[in-house]
Structure formats: structure tokens, C-alpha cells
Specification:
Elements: H1 2-13, E1 19-29, E2 39-44, E3 50-55, E4 61-68, E5 73-78, E6 85-89, E7 94-101, H2 106-112, E8 120-123, E9 126-130, H3 142-148, E10 152-154, E11 160-162, E12 165-172, E13 175-176, H4 182-188, E14 196-202, H5 205-210, E15 215-224, E16 231-242, E17 247-257, E18 260-269, E19 292-294, E20 300-302, E21 305-306, E22 314-328, E23 332-357, E24 360-388, E25 391-395, E26 398-415, E27 421-448, E28 453-479, E29 485-513, E30 518-542, E31 545-549, E32 555-573, E33 577-594, E34 599-617, E35 622-633, H6 637-640, E36 644-645, E37 651-654, E38 662-675, E39 680-692, E40 694-701, E41 707-714, E42 717-731, E43 736-755, E44 758-777, E45 781-796, E46 802-816, E47 822-833, E48 843-855, E49 860-867, E50 876-880, E51 884-890, E52 896-908
Parallel strand pairs: 1-7, 12-15, 37-41, 40-43
Antiparallel strand pairs: 1-4, 2-3, 2-5, 5-6, 8-9, 9-14, 10-11, 11-12, 12-13, 14-15, 16-17, 16-52, 17-18, 18-22, 19-20, 20-21, 22-23, 23-24, 23-51, 24-25, 24-26, 25-27, 26-27, 27-28, 28-29, 29-30, 30-31, 30-32, 32-33, 33-34, 34-35, 35-38, 36-37, 38-39, 39-42, 40-41, 42-43, 43-44, 44-45, 45-46, ...
Helix pairs in contact: 3-4
């Protein structure tokens, strides 16, 4: 370690004796024909460590440049189907001329396959990295290896992009590691287990089987494990306790033997942690440690990992999960996955909102608090079999159960433009929810012929039942301009709501090959969805008695939507060009029934369905992509049901059963250029969405500032987005490297709506330039600064109101692995928000740090960590909406100190771990 530090110091003082060199040449076959996309690389003679590499151009030429203080290096050329080319060279400026490669034979393959491993290989539609060529510390995980790869970026939330395109799946030997959560693999797979890292276009199981084109805009990473290591186990256990009664407990265990794998997860903590991001430097303390997001389907996510149904604030969670995968003869595979989550969430929210009217504005101030308990069970199964080489059958049933109860209270007041309070409302709500969801996907696919012909039948269902019972109480007061109370209204109600949704889908697809490159595709698609919502509101009739049905607020509503879409198109596919044009009829039938009033509406809609796709590979490093599609989006049952929702007595919502489905046009294109020879590339994209019959709000605000909102259809809403980023990797010398990643993102929305019978439009622009750097000294130090600025502009036709403000964010992460056996992490996040009014904190510095010491070799680590050292953490945000501007502040996790211990157990390869005669 002292030697490593000394060498690093030489870099800082510029005393390195490394010599610059540039080696050129041309890769050809024995006839002199050029070989493009060959991997040319240099290794040290002493330990075979990688010095530098490049990829040959289409004409076979290459340039190898770098630094080395070795007298001699091994030059190796690798190209699929050819025997590796070896040559010893001196690290100096020189032209090697033509390097002729011989076609490999089976006998040669046996010898040379393990003798040369190219760091990067480009094979048709697969980008492949040799993990051993990219040096990391000895106990690194998959995420740390990915950060070393050219063109690969991993942000602080663990999201991965390859040449600007997101990674949606991570597989291990072609199989899912733990469900569909890629972070479980990146955070827990140890480096020594990894052989190759392959990047391909994301494909469904059916596309993999039929050989269809995948989604080139989303990538899948497949991790291959050597056969001799594909047997063993690894596990990790962490326990920690801290100030303010903060704690964390977590465990992960994985056992695998050839095609069988068992994974177990468990955690319990009250620090807003997923419990499974076992990053050895920061654990769950990163700059997003308070970040919680929610989805409309009842799921929640902490730091990007989804669990049960929770909100913002501070959560105490208990989780346990089990995953089992096995494969038998005739390619029959079974996967079982169970996950349980218990959550206890507390939140407090403060909101100040400016509402824009045609003739003025008014303000809303609110404070609310909530507590929510939730138990969620998720069970999923996957069964796949191939009874013969031409047939594939699969079933993927999933079952979710959520049982939750919550209590919330709030105080809201509305103020006139001059600050006079015209109303206020105090509410409490005690709610219980029981939700079940069952879904299944069944596929049958049969291939025929030798050119990729197939036909398939896909069946799917989704059945949801949600029962919710609320005890709701509110007091609303209204005042005149002089501040005198003019009206007081009390709601004391029991709300019994039963919501059901049943959706069934069937699709018949077929492909008729016309030639080696042309195909004729056909599809028949049908889905039918029935949604029912019975909402019965009972007013209090006595002490703790609720039997007075309020017919004005109750309803029993049914919405039935069916879609039928026959389509046909042509598909063209070569190594450089992929093209698809599909057209058909999209028939939609919408039937709404209000059982209370016995009112029925039946509407039919027909339009031309179109989907066009183009992917053109200009060269081995450049490609363009274009896609256009259109679709209908039906309104939700909340937007349709003709009943007033008064749980916010100052903003009453009513559905409109006469709504039409909106018709959406979407276009997207990008240009991708990444040159592995120069370790640099850029990615640009542009997209637009246009809506016809968009569903927009109609709001009326009375003289007491009480709002009522319903919905209507209107033409003319659209959004435009675009941006790009640059990725440059620089090998400064054999010990240090630098990654530069600047970019800019743009989003522009035009929204329409109605306020007091006046149609308005709002135009909202958001531009976010940013730059990130990663400076790394091997095994010693990593510095990762990121700066982001967000330019916000909103123009409102109402009152000609404008809103312009800047947000700034600076993140700086430092990781040190020196002195030996110590791990030091420090994470800074500074944020400053523009136009924040008094009463809200407009800036803060979140500083986290940890110091770990390795025990028991590399198997244990004792760690002291501090969250929010300066005790400044806050959650403030400003949002420009369609007809409002809002400032929000939420409860966040505050400063704590924690001491934890992590213990790792692992064993790979060798004998069967079940062998009682001894360890494997």
C-alpha cells in the first residue's frame, strides 16, 4: 500500500517517468481485406494488465496512444472468428503496417480462447466487456466495475446508462437475478464472480425466442459467470444503532448451483433506507437518503427501490423477500418470488400556493400531518418451457395484497390578493384500505421455416379490488371582506368505497418472411376493461352512528372500455438498417353507466393506428433512431364518475361521464455517437407529444374562494423535450483516470384549461445544463463532483403572469481507500432554490460522512457514519403548475450518528457446497 501511495504522489508532482507513444497500423485478413471493429490492445508483459486499447475503423486502421514506462509490451488483436494476433512492441511512436489475421479453426479455438481476452468486443448487436481488464479494488461490486467501463455511467441513485441509453434490466447468465430490480445485482454481485459484461438491446422473452428486433432505446446488461464459479454462496449481514433511536438491520444471502439459484433478503430500519444497497462506503446515506417517491398504483420507492404504499417523510420499514429460480431438462424454468413489506410512515407538509385567476389571484396556505401503516405482500411466479426447439410456452402470474390504515389532519386557509382571509378549513381523516391485485401473462409462440417466421398468442388479465373506509370530519368557515364570519359548514361522514377493475387482453401476432431481410407482420389486438366504483357517503346521525345516506355525494358508477386493433405492416432488418411501418384500425367503445340516476352513455371512436420505426447504423459508433406512434388514452374512473368529492372542502371535484378519450401523437428521434478508440461520445435526442381531445380541468372559484373542478376535452396541448450529453474517458496514466460528462436537458409544455369560464394557456419551460466529473486513483481515491442548474420559466395567459427562477445543485462525493483497511466516504449536496418566499428555507448543505475499518480480512467492516453533519437537511421545492405556483416543504430525516458492523460470507467454485465430505 505504501508503494501505491508513493506512485500516486508521483502523479501529483509530475515526476512519473512514463513515456508517451502512438502506435498505428491496419488489421486485415490474409487476403488484405480490412477488418473493422477489431479490438487492438496492449498489455504489460509482467502481469498482463491492460495498458490501453482501441477499436479498428471500418478500413481496418487503428491508433493506439498512451503512456508507459515499460520497455516492452504485448500487442494483441482480437476479432470474432479469427485467431488472436500476438506481437511484442516497444512503447514508442511507430507504424506496424498491416497485421494479418488467420481464420480460426476448432483446434486453435481450444488453445487461444483463454489465452487472449479483449477488453472490449463489438459483435453484431452485442457490446462485450472483459471485467478483468478494468481494474478496481479487490472487494469491489458490480456497480464499481460498471463505473470503470467506457461509455457507461452510474449516477448516485444507481441508475445506469450505456452511451446515453438507460439500462432497464440486469441478467446473470441470461436469467433475472432477483425479480426485475437491477440495483439488487449491481450492489451485491462481487467482482470476482464476474467474467463478461454484455450489453444488448432490451428484448422480451418472446423476442429473444423468435429473434425479433429489441428495443434499441433501452439496454439490458447480462453478467456471465464462469462455469467453475457458478456454484457457491455469498451473504452479507449488517447491524447498526445510532442516536435518536436510529437503527438498521439487513441481510442478503444467495446460493447458486449451475442453473439453480436461491436468494433471500431481509431488512429493518428507520432511516428511510431500502436496506439492500450495501454500498460499503455510504450504505443508505447518500444525498437521496430522504428521497421517497410514490406511484398511483399504491407502490412506493425509497432511493429508487419500490416497496409498499407509503408517502413522503420518515419511514420505519421491515422487509423480507425470497427468490427461487431453477431450470430443468427441455429448457423448462420455474421462478418464484415473494416479498413482504411493513411500513410506518410519518409526514408533515407545509404548502403556500398562488392561484392565478382571469381577473386577479389568491393564495392558499396549508399545514398537514399524516401517519400511515401499511402491510404489503407480493407473490409472483414465472414458468417457461420449450417442449421442442420451435415452441415456447410461458405463464407469469402475480398476486399483490395491501392492507393499510392512515390518519391525517390538515388546516388550510384562502387569502385574497390583499392578504384578507376569506375562508379556512380544518379536516381529519381516519382511513382503512384493503387492496388485492391479481395479474397473469400467458404466451404461446411457435416458429416455422428458416427465415424467422412465427405466430404467437398472448393472453393477459389484471383484476383489482380496492375497499376503502374513511371516517372524515371537516369544518369550513367563510368570511366577508371585513373579516366577519358569514358561514360555517361541518361534514361528519363515513365513506364506504368499493372499487373494482377487471381487464382482459388477447393478441394474435404473426410474421411471414418475404425474403432474408423483409417480413410481413400481422396483429389482432383486443382488450376489455370494466371499472366499477361504488362510493356511499353516510352523514352522522348520532353519536358514532352513520346511517344517513347522502345521495348527492354517493354514486354507483360503471365504466366499460373496449379496444379492437387489427394491424399489418412490413419489417426490414439488416446489420445496418432496421425499419418497421405498421398501420391499422383502432376501434374504441366507451360505455358509462350511473346506476344511481340510471344514466347511460355509449360512444364509439375510430381512428387510423400508425407505428413507424427506423434505426440506421451509420458506422460502428454512430446510429440514428426515429419512432412515431399514436394511441388513444381513455379517461380514468375518477374523471368520469358524476359525483362530488368533498374531502377537500375548499376544492370540490366532480367527474364528467361525457368525456371522450384523448388521442395522442408521439414522435421521438436521437443520434448516438460513441467512439471506443477515443473513449468519447455524445448522445442527442428530441421528442414531441401532441394531444387531441386532451382532458383538462374546468375550475370555478366563487366569491368565497371555494373552488369546484370538473373536466372537459380540448385540442392543442403538447410537450416538447430534448437534450444531449457528452461522455469522455481519459486515462491519465496507469494509475489514474478522468471521466467528463456534461449535458443539457430541455422540457417545454403547453397546457390548456378553464378558469371561471375563461380558457387559459400556460407555457412552462425547464432547461437543465449540468456537468459531472469522476477522477479516480486506482485503489486509493475517487472524486465525483456534479453541478446542475435548472432554468425555470412559466408564462400564464391569465393576468399575463410570468414566473422565472433558477435552482442550483452541487454534489461532491469523495471516497478514499487509504490508509489500508480504512474506507472513508464524504458526500456533500448543496442546493439553492430561486424565488422561495419567506418562511421557507431557500438553500441547504447536506453533508454525510462515514469511516469504516475492515476486520477479519475483507469479510467484516466496522463503520461510523454521520448523516447530515451540519443539521441542515430540508425538503423544499417550488413548482409552476397549469394555473398556479406552489412552494412545498416536507418533513425529512435529520442528523444522526450510527455505528454499524457488516459481515460477509462467500464461497465460489470448487466442489458442490452440498457435499458433506467437505467444503467446495
Amino acid at each position: 500500500m505504501k508503494l501505491k501511495l508513493f506512485v500516486a504522489l508521483l502523479f501529483f508532482t509530475g515526476l512519473s517517468q512514463a513515456q508517451d507513444f502512438e502506435i498505428t497500423g491496419k488489421v486485415t485478413d490474409t487476403s488484405g481485406a480490412p477488418l473493422g471493429s477489431a479490438t487492438v490492445y496492449l498489455e504489460k508483459v509482467t502481469d498482463s494488465s491492460l495498458v490501453t486499447y482501441t477499436i479498428s475503423e471500418d478500413n481496418g486502421s487503428f491508433v493506439l496512444d498512451g503512456k508507459s514506462n515499460d520497455k516492452e509490451l504485448n500487442l494483441i488483436v482480437s476479432y470474432a472468428g479469427y485467431s488472436p494476433y500476438f506481437k511484442k512492441v516497444q512503447p514508442k511512436d511507430q507504424d506496424l503496417g498491416n497485421l494479418k489475421m488467420n481464420i480460426s479453426s476448432n483446434e486453435l479455438d481450444e488453445v487461444t480462447l483463454t489465452a487472449a481476452r479483449a477488453p472490449v468486443s463489438i459483435k453484431s448487436d452485442t457490446l462485450e466487456f472483459n471485467a478483468a481488464s478494468f481494474k478496481t479494488r479487490e472487494d469491489a461490486n458490480l456497480e464499481e466495475v460498471l463505473k470503470k467501463l467506457p461509455g457507461v455511467s452510474v449516477d448516485n441513485a444507481g441508475n445506469i446508462t450505456v452511451n446515453g441509453k438507460p439500462v432497464s434490466r440486469i441478467l446473470v447468465n441470461g436469467k433475472e437475478f432477483f425479480g426485475d430490480d437491477p440495483k439488487i445485482a449491481t450492489k451485491n454481485l462481487p467482482k470476482e464472480l464476474i467474467n463478461k459484461i454484455q450489453v444488448v438491446d432490451t428484448k422480451t422473452k418472446s423476442q429473444e425466442f423468435t429473434g425479433e428486433e429489441g428495443d434499441s432505446e433501452n439496454k439490458t446488461i447480462n453478467i456471465t459467470i464462469d462455469e467453475d464459479k457458478n456454484r457457491g454462496y455469498f451473504s452479507r449481514l449488517t447491524a447498526g444503532g445510532g442516536t435518536d433511536d436510529r437503527y438498521e438491520l439487513s441481510a442478503i444471502a444467495n446460493y447458486f448451483q449451475d442453473k439453480q439459484r436461491v436468494s433471500f433478503l431481509a431488512s429493518s430500519n428507520n432511516i428511510n433506507s431500502s436496506g439492500f444497497t450495501f454500498d460499503e462506503v455510504f450504505d443508505s446515506m447518500g444525498r437521496n437518503a430522504y428521497s421517497i417517491s410514490t406511484n398511483s398504483n399504491g407502490s412506493f420507492a425509497i432511493n429508487g427501490v419500490s416497496y409498499g404504499n407509503m408517502g413522503g417523510g420518515i419511514s420505519e420499514t421491515d422487509n423480507i423477500g425470497l427468490n427461487y429460480v431453477d431450470e430443468w431438462a427441455k429448457k423448462t424454468e420455474l421462478g418464484l418470488n415473494y416479498f413482504y413489506n411493513h411500513g410506518d410512515n410519518t409526514n408533515r407538509t407545509k404548502i403556500e400556493r398562488e392561484n392565478i385567476l382571469p381577473d386577479g389571484r389568491f393564495f392558499i396556505n396549508s399545514n398537514s400531518s399524516s401517519n400511515r401503516l401499511s402491510d404489503n405482500h407480493r407473490f409472483s411466479t414465472s414458468f417457461e418451457t420449450q417442449p421442442d426447439t420451435l415452441t415456447r410456452i410461458s405463464f407469469r402470474p402475480n398476486f399483490n395484497v395491501t392492507n393499510a390504515q392512515s390518519y391525517s389532519d390538515s388546516y388550510t386557509e384562502s387569502l385574497a390578493e390583499d392578504g384578507t382571509m376569506l375562508n379556512n378549513a380544518t379536516t381529519t381523516n381516519d382511513s382503512k384500505v384493503f387492496n388485492t391485485d391479481f395479474s397473469n401473462r400467458a404466451y404461446f409462440t411457435r416458429k416455422y421455416g428458416s427465415r424467422g417466421g412465427f405466430y404467437s398468442v398472448n393472453l393477459a388479465n389484471n383484476n383489482t379490488n380496492r375497499i376503502q373506509k374513511d371516517y372524515f370530519y371537516s369544518e369550513r368557515e367563510t368570511f366577508n371582506e371585513n373579516g366577519d364570519l358569514t358561514n360555517s359548514q361541518i361534514q361528519d361522514q363515513f365513506i364506504d368505497e368499493d372499487r373494482k377493475s377487471n381487464q382482459y387482453t388477447a393478441e394474435l401476432r404473426g410474421r411471414l418472411p418475404i425474403s432474408d431481410n423483409w417480413n410481413f407482420d400481422m396483429s389482432l389486438y383486443y382488450d376489455d376493461e370494466t371499472s366499477k366504483n361504488q362510493r356511499l357517503v353516510y352523514n352522522a346521525s348520532g353519536e358514532e352512528a352513520y346511517d344517513d345516506l347522502d345521495a348527492n355525494l354517493s354514486n354507483d358508477f360503471r365504466s366499460e372500455i373496449s379496444n379492437f386493433r387489427p394491424s399489418a405492416g412490413v419489417n426490414y432488418n439488416t446489420d445496418t438498417l432496421r425499419f418497421t411501418l405498421t398501420a391499422g384500425l383502432h376501434h374504441t367503445n366507451l360505455r358509462n353507466t350511473d346506476l344511481f340516476s340510471e344514466t347511460r352513455i355509449n360512444n364509439t371512436y375510430n381512428n387510423l393506428y400508425t407505428n413507424a420505426f427506423l434505426y440506421y447504423k451509420l458506422s460502428k459508433s454512430k446510429s440514428i433512431y426515429f419512432n412515431y406512434s399514436n394511441s388513444r388514452q381513455t379517461p380514468s374512473i375518477d374523471q368520469l364518475q358524476p359525483v362530488s368529492i368533498t374531502v377537500n372542502p375548499l376544492n370540490i371535484l366532480t367527474g364528467n361521464p361525457s368525456l371522450d378519450p384523448s388521442f395522442n401523437h408521439r414522435a421521438y428521434m436521437n443520434f448516438n455517437n460513441y467512439d471506443y478508440a477515443s473513449r468519447s461520445g455524445y448522445y442527442t435526442y428530441f421528442g414531441a407529444n401532441y394531444q387531441k381531445d386532451a382532458i383538462v380541468p374546468i375550475t370555478f372559484t366563487d366569491e368565497n374562494l371555494v373552488r369546484t373542478t370538473t373536466y372537459t376535452n380540448v385540442d392543442g396541448t403538447y410537450s416538447i423535450y430534448g437534450g444531449g450529453n457528452l461522455n469522455k474517458s481519459i486515462e491519465l496514466d496507469s494509475l489514474s483516470s478522468l471521466k467528463v460528462n456534461p449535458g443539457v436537458y430541455l422540457n417545454y409544455n403547453k397546457n390548456l384549461g378553464f378558469s371561471n369560464e375563461v380558457q387559459y394557456e400556460s407555457k412552462i419551460l425547464r432547461v437543465t445544463p449540468n456537468v459531472g466529473l469522476v477522477y479516480d486513483i486506482k485503489d486509493l481515491l475517487t472524486l465525483e463532483p456534479v453541478y446542475r442548474m435548472t432554468i425555470n420559466r412559466a408564462d400564464y395567459s391569465l393576468n399575463n403572469r410570468q414566473e422565472n427562477y433558477l435552482n442550483h445543485e452541487l454534489n461532491f462525493q469523495v471516497t478514499s481507500y487509504w490508509p489500508e483497511n480504512f474506507l472513508l466516504g464524504s458526500d456533500f449536496s448543496y442546493q439553492k432554490f430561486g424565488n422561495i418566499p419567506p418562511g421557507f428555507k431557500n438553500s441547504f448543505l447536506l453533508w454525510n460522512a462515514s469511516l469504516g475499518y475492515k476486520l477479519l480480512g475483507d469479510d467484516g467492516i466496522l463503520k461510523l457514519k454521520v448523516f447530515d453533519i451540519l443539521n441542515e437537511n430540508t425538503s423544499t421545492r417550488r413548482m409552476a403548475g397549469e394555473d398556479f405556483i406552489q412552494n412545498t416543504e416536507e418533513l425529512v430525516l435529520k442528523q444522526y450518528f450510527m455505528l454499524s458492523f457488516t459481515w460477509k460470507l462467500k464461497k465460489f467454485g470448487g466442489k458442490d457446497p452440498n457435499n458433506r465430505r467437505g467444503p467446495f
